[in-house]
């Protein structure tokens, strides 16, 4: 840990110098300043063992990309422009504080370690230097090493004193700088509110589009399928009524076809209704529905289902369709031999879903795997979707959906 804090302080000294040199570029290139600040934030989080997530900044970058090229520039209009200005100003203030605090902290660490090294050299090799270039101990006292007694006593004392300073002071300085970075680069309440508004706006647009597409699909299914069959039934019954007195055999055949067509129409109607809310959820609940999905999967599925309690119908439907789509994706694309499905309720008001397979990995939204559709479904309930699929696997799809009242 002490070596880690020493390395942190020395790198802080180096990055402070780089910040001063590159400051003109950072001022006019907001993405560069933002990336520089983000790197320090994550570095400080690792030092402090905070596990600082990258989600805030990735969400900011995603929102800025969706808002257009002017969103990240200071002074750009709109909510994304306001947020870009706030982030740029915050990062600039951090950069100045980083130099003001990090440079002296890092310089102190460098001087301390350098003098320990000088003492170590003086302790063992003072005699190898020319008389006028021999090491000096205790810079303030200007003690020249000209004999073994001075080298042994002075070197040991200097190493002991500076070693104690490094042992006790370095962690304190490193943590102070780390806390400064994390505190100054944390989003303010105004930034979080602005980001939240942007996210909700995007989610609302996606939900409206998805809702419109779903209505069009249902209308098309009913028009092309069920309605066509009902028209056929009406025509067959009409012909049967006209032939009732003259040709009983034709009437019987027409009624038979009308009966078959009616059954086909009912099957199609049930299929359409199942896409709105699966009947199996009403009949067997989410646990029974998931067991049914697992039984139908050609890849073995191990279900780890915790006690979920009562869930809203909309949450159950989203969970069902997301899991069904995920299992289908694994079957079609992953070449997996097993799937682990974990469903639990975390924090009392969040339904967490995790689908993990041992397939070949490399899954992404551009491959037509339905991830975009999942995101839209989940976003409608203010949830999140995270896909982790490195080449070679394993692939993990993590979904969180709020389910509180």
UniProtKB/TrEMBL annotation:
Against SMART domains, the record matches this protein to:
HATPase_c
Name the residues that span the membrane.
6-33, 95-128, 148-170
What positions belong to coiled-coil segments? none
Question: Which parts of this chain are annotated as the region Disordered?
Answer: 60-80
Pfam short name (any one):
HisKA_3
Q: Which organism is it from?
A: Actinomadura barringtoniae
* One annotated GO molecular function: ATP binding
Name under which the protein is recorded: histidine kinase
Catalyses which reaction(s): ATP + protein L-histidine = ADP + protein N-phospho-L-histidine
Record domain Histidine kinase/HSP90-like ATPase: where: 314-405
Arranged from A to Z, the UniProt key words for this protein are: ATP-binding, Kinase, Membrane, Nucleotide-binding, Phosphoprotein, Transferase, Transmembrane, Transmembrane helix, Two-component regulatory system
Which Gene3D superfamilies does this UniProt record tie to the protein?
1.20.5.1930, Histidine kinase-like ATPase, C-terminal domain
Enzyme Commission number, as recorded: 2.7.13.3
Task: Return the GO cellular component terms, semicolon-separated.
Answer: membrane
Q: Tell me the lineage of the source organism.
A: Bacteria, Bacillati, Actinomycetota, Actinomycetes, Streptosporangiales
Entries under InterPro entries matching the protein: HATPase_C_sf, HATPase_dom, Put_sensor_dom, Sensor_HK_TwoCompSys, Sig_transdc_His_kin_sub3_dim/P
């Amino acid at each position: 840990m002490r070596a880690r804090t020493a390395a942190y302080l020395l790198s802080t000294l180096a990055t402070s110098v780089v910040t001063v040199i590159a400051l003109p570029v950072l001022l006019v290139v907001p993405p560069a300043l933002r990336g520089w600040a983000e790197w320090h934030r994550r570095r400080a989080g690792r030092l402090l063992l905070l596990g600082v997530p990258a989600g805030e900044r990735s969400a900011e970058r995603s929102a800025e990309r969706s808002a257009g090229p002017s969103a990240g520039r200071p002074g750009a209009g709109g909510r994304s422009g306001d947020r870009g200005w706030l982030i740029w100003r915050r990062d600039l203030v951090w950069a100045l504080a980083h130099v003001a605090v990090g440079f002296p902290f890092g310089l102190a660490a460098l001087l301390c370690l350098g003098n320990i090294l000088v003492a170590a050299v003086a302790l063992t090799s003072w005699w190898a230097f020319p008389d006028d270039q021999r090491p000096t101990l205790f810079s303030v006292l200007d003690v020249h090493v000209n004999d073994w007694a001075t080298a042994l006593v002075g070197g040991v004392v200097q190493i002991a004193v500076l070693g104690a300073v490094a042992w006790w002071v370095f962690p304190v300085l490193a943590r102070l700088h780390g806390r400064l970075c994390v505190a100054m680069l944390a989003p303010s309440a105004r930034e979080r509110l602005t980001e939240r508004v942007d996210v909700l706006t995007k989610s609302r647009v996606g939900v409206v589009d998805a809702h419109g597409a779903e209505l069009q699909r249902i209308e098309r299914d009913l028009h092309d399928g069920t309605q066509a069959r009902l028209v056929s039934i009406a025509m067959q019954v009409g012909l049967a009524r006209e032939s009732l007195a003259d040709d009983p055999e034709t009437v019987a055949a027409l009624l038979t076809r009308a009966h078959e067509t009616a059954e086909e129409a009912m099957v199609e109607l049930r299929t359409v209704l199942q896409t709105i809310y699966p009947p199996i959820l009403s009949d067997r609940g989410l646990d029974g529905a998931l067991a049914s999905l697992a039984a139908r999967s050609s890849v073995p599925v191990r279900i780890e289902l915790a006690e979920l309690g009562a869930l809203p119908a909309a949450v159950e439907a989203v969970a069902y369709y997301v899991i069904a789509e995920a299992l289908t994706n694994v079957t079609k694309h992953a070449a997996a031999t097993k799937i682990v499905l974990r469903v639990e309720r975390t924090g009392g008001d969040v339904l967490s879903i995790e689908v993990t397979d041992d397939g070949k990995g490399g899954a992404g939204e551009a491959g037509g795997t339905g991830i975009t559709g999942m995101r839209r479904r989940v976003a409608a309930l203010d949830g999140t979707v995270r896909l982790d699929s490195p080449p070679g696997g394993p692939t993990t799809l993590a979904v969180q959906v709020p389910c509180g009242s």
